[in-house]
Amino acid sequence: MASTPLPTAKHSLPSLLHAQTPKTLLSRKLPNLPKSFQSQFCGVKLSHSSNFAVPSSFKKSSILAKVSKGSVAPSFSLKDQDGKTVSLSKFKGKPVVVYFYPADETPGCTKQACAFRDSYEKFKKAGAEVIGISGDDPSSHKAFAKKYRLPFTLLSDEGNKVRKDWGVPADLFGTLPGRQTYVLDKNGVVQLIYNNQFQPEKHIDETLKFLQSA
Amino acid sequence: MLKDPILKSKWYHRAWVASGCTTVLVSLAKSVTVAADSGIWLQPILAGLVGYMLADLGSGIYHWGIDNYGDENTPVFGSQIEAFQGHHKWPWIITRRQFANNLHTLARAVSFTVLPIDLIFNDPVLHGFVGVCLGCIMFSQQFHAWAHSTKSKLHPLVVALQDAGVLVSRSIHGAHNRPLYDSNYCIVSGVWNELLDTYKVFEALEMILFYKLGVRPRSWSEPSPSWTEETDTSSLIAES
């Protein structure tokens, strides 16, 4: 399948001092698209306060989103792939990468899970834990984790309650659960949010880059 | 030389192709004559171009649907799905089919679609669109066959049109005919393939259908043997 490499947006710390609209990724080769498509296809990274102007695709979600950069992530308790209840508070004291994905055993989610698996040692070296969350039940997670030898925790957000609580935006006019990743610091404060539905491996690149530079 | 009779054209294949061509030619003739009478040329020509572009897009969507969903027992589309499955298994057979044998299914659909339009409407812009669009759809199976052929066996004009991107090229379509059969679905000019694949349009549609209806497309799994190209075809070649 043809894929055009896209440039990444750069956000530097000094930007916190200036009002700056986070740039969505643009490709010179492909025609201009509405911003709502750009975020889904090219990815949007928020690593500064949402008080600043955001692209129109995020305006709706930033009003509704309860979790944004700088806020303490709301706690949750969900069942993992072995049926054990796991709380977010268990991970306090170390950075956590919480990634919300649409569904087990779909091409994008499989690519993403395998990419997290392949870089898991690097995440551990950065002191971080990785948690994947989707609406699938524990038995689906167990089969998915076993098939692809996933070494990290998968949680069942049945009914998508946590997804809604965190305000993860849906894609394609609400027809598809969004693919959004949060990096929490050791105090449980959100430091990075990355959204990209159709380039799942980028979630690993972006979060690892952030953790390694922190 | 293959002696399998189902590759030859039967009289009713030729009849359907004749009727399909007639309806399309009538539509194009109406477009030209009414346009000439009223002196407008640009809109019917533009409508024809739009028809050519949409035929390519339509071919891709239809092809994607048939390749990924349903099976030989699906109502209405079952025989088509079986035919596409056979094509993935033995892609070279399309180059051995006689012309009407190859096109008759599409020609039948085109006949039923275009005939009422021919009878009811006289608008040159509508006929410009319909004649070109449905004509390209009917002949898409011929363009498809040419895309499976080798350069040496094709007329130089066909090769030139393929190289120019007017007709789907052998290399672009070749990229579809290998596992997981999940790209390059368009088979008129193939002009939409890059856009559809770059923006993962079909992947998005597949995700929506999976999430809303729970149906998995075939292209998400390693293709079953019944959908994969069979490399040993010695049993199909009759002794000459």
TrEMBL record, chain A:
Main localisation, per the record? plastid
Q: What is the name of the gene encoding this protein? A: LOC140009485
Protein family according to the UniProt entry: Belongs to the peroxiredoxin family. BCP/PrxQ subfamily.
Task: Name the UniProt key words of this record, in alphabetical order.
Answer: Antioxidant, Disulfide bond, Oxidoreductase, Peroxidase, Redox-active center
Q: Give all residue intervals belonging to the Thioredoxin domain.
A: 67-214
Q: Which reaction does it catalyse?
A: a hydroperoxide + [thioredoxin]-dithiol = an alcohol + [thioredoxin]-disulfide + H2O
Show the PROSITE patterns listed in the entry: THIOREDOXIN_2
Instruction: Give its localization.
Output: Plastid, Chloroplast thylakoid lumen
SUPFAM superfamilies from the UniProt entry: Thioredoxin-like
UniProt-recorded name of the protein: Peroxiredoxin Q, chloroplastic
Superkingdom per UniProt: Eukaryota
**EC primary class:** oxidoreductase
List, alphabetically, the CDD domains matched.
PRX_BCP
Record EC number: 1.11.1.24
TrEMBL record, chain B:
Gene Ontology biological process terms, A to Z: fatty acid metabolic process
Q: How does it sit in the membrane?
A: Multi-pass membrane protein
Annotated keywords: Membrane, Transmembrane, Transmembrane helix
Q: Which Pfam families match?
A: Lipid_desat (PF10520)
Identify the residues that the record assigns to the Lipid desaturase domain, covering every copy. 52-220
Gene Ontology CC: one annotated term: membrane
Where does the record place Low complexity bias?
218-228
**Chain intervals for the UniProt region annotation (Disordered):** 218-240
Question: Can the keyword tRNA-binding be found in this entry's annotation?
Answer: no
> This chain belongs to which protein, by name?
Fatty acid desaturase 4, chloroplastic-like
